[in-house]
Write a structure and sequence with these properties.
The structure holds two protein chains of two kinds. Helix content of chain A is about 55%, strand content about 20%. Chain A is of the alpha+beta class. Chain A has a five-stranded antiparallel beta sheet. In chain A, helix 5 (about 210-260) runs antiparallel to helix 6 and helix 6 packs parallel to helix 10. Chain A is rod-shaped and about 155 Å long. Chain B is elongated, with a radius of gyration of 19 Å. The chains are: A alpha+beta, B alpha/beta. At the A-B interface, helix 5, helix 6, helix 7 and helix 8 of A face helix 1, helix 4 and helix 8 of B.
Amino acid sequence: MTLLRSLSFRLALLYLAVFAGSVALLGGLFYWIEVARPLAEIRGDIRSESAALSEFYRGEDPAALTAALEARAVAEAPRVAYHALLNSRGEPLTANLPSWPGNFAPGWKRIEADVAREGDEDEYEALVLDQQLPGGLRLLLGRDIDDIDELEESLSDTVLWIVPALLLLGVCGGALMSRVIAARLDAISSAARGVIDGDLSSRIELRGASDDFDRLAATLNLMLDRLEASLDAVRRVSDSVAHELRTPLARLQAELADLSASPAPEGAARALAEATRLQTVIDAVLRIARIEAGRHAMTARPVDLSALLADVIEFYQPEADVRGQQLVVSVAPGLSFAGDGDLLFQGFANLLDNAVKFTPDGGTIVIGAAEEGGAIQVEVRNDALVSAPEQLDRVTERFFRAPGAAGVVGLGLGLSLVAAIAVAHRSDLSFRSDEKSFLAIWRFHTRDG
Amino acid sequence: MHILLIEDDERISGYVAKALREEGHLVDVAADGRSGLTQATSEAYDVIVLDRMLPQVDGLKVLHALRGMDDTTPVLILSALGDADERVRGLRAGGDDYLAKPFSIEELVARVEVLGRRRGQPELPARHMFDDLLVDPVARVVSRAGKRIELTNREFRILEYLARNAGRVVTRSMLLEHVWDYNFDPQTNIIDQHVSRLRQKLERVGGEPLIETVRGAGYSIRRGSA
């Protein structure tokens, strides 16, 4: 459940728990002060009254006790006094309690004491001590506790209604808070994703509320400004490097071409070839750097990979034929991927170029492509003298040349370019090798996840 | 042809002008954008070779101004910014061709000549004849001495491009740009294998070799009669 994974929601729940705990603690304290303690005091009072009244009943005549009880009933006191004195047959000798339980059960009881006074019936709750006196008499002695009882009732109402409402509101409030915060965070992460995708001009929208999130967004935007500015500076430098390298190279080539015109001095042609090679290296390195920096203006359009692969294969077929190599092709039809067709063509061309160059004459190159499990997998397998496994990780390094590559034309930049193109397309490029073949696997994710 | 070269680097402009003059062209040189633009509007040129980065008025601005005046003179942009998107920007601004620095002089001369020809005869002949070879782009038929030659689509496009530029040098990168639908950089000269295969098919039925290799530059097919 995504809601439970949200920090703000969990914080809201935690806050709710702390709040509920505090309410319970305060409620308990209130109950103890306002209910439990007064009741204990009243019990103590009734016990001592009972002890005092017992003094009036030493013999067998209950008249003195009756008189004392009746006097107690009318005496001024903060709490109305109740009593019932019953003989051994259960008949009342004196009583101001309206009713009592028929059977004797020693201990404390709550009895409803409704008192009719001037036509109105007041309901009272009384706390009563039920006890047996010598001679078969039964004495119920009590005091009015109606105020405490009402307090108790309202407390239990509170627990019954307020607490569930509190919990419900707390959970809803937490969910709401979590949604609001998630929306603000989403704005930040979508801007960040834009930057990851190469759009450095992406910024987080401010709400204008100057709240914590706005301040965070403003700080992040400031950071992005700085980042963009310094990257722009790097770009300007790399553009001028490109310009400053290419222009003198063009001049050098002009001079050398002049020199190599007849009569050519010794080595002029070799120097010209070297200058041309230098140009190729600079072009390739700059191009890889541009693609890696996300500076190549990638135009992602749906590309028919099946057709594109067929074109790449057709491009290399004559060269393979000359070398007596067999191209075995199994490309599923209709493979489509959103990407830059020119770059993808370049990438596959470089893979095939490598395969054709490194496969011995008469060897086989297998090209396969199929879609499976949300990804299109393109494989190029060729017979070759294979690099050791530890070298597989290095094949995409710039200027890396496999030990077996001596005598093969190349700069060691072809696979670096493929790797840069693979990253630009968020695809995975990997290489494997066994005893006699080299395998390049290029996976394009057509589904998220 | 009458060619205007707008280039601020003296060494390069001297070298390019010299090579073009050796091919028999008349070359005027301007060293900055402003004088280049004045020159371009005061005289009629067959081709303008324009450097991308110029003092005073930038190369693309010159091109923009020129196209704004309905001047359709073919323009070849020279640039030290060799990236694919730079190239697209140059062509979008109204350039007819784009060449990254450093370049081989043969490449530049070949491209200038092809651009000049395009202006000279805008209408393509329906069919080309080279000795006994017939190339019919409309019917997509190639035959030699009456014998039909089966070519793949790609081979046909190579031959057609060579035929359209008959008598001029077509470089490997020009073939790559016009015959293949992708903008890419082949690591090796795979193009040679395609041309050699085409050549074999054309010669298998007999007759003189028609496609020449121009050393250090590219290929050429001898001009025939339309």
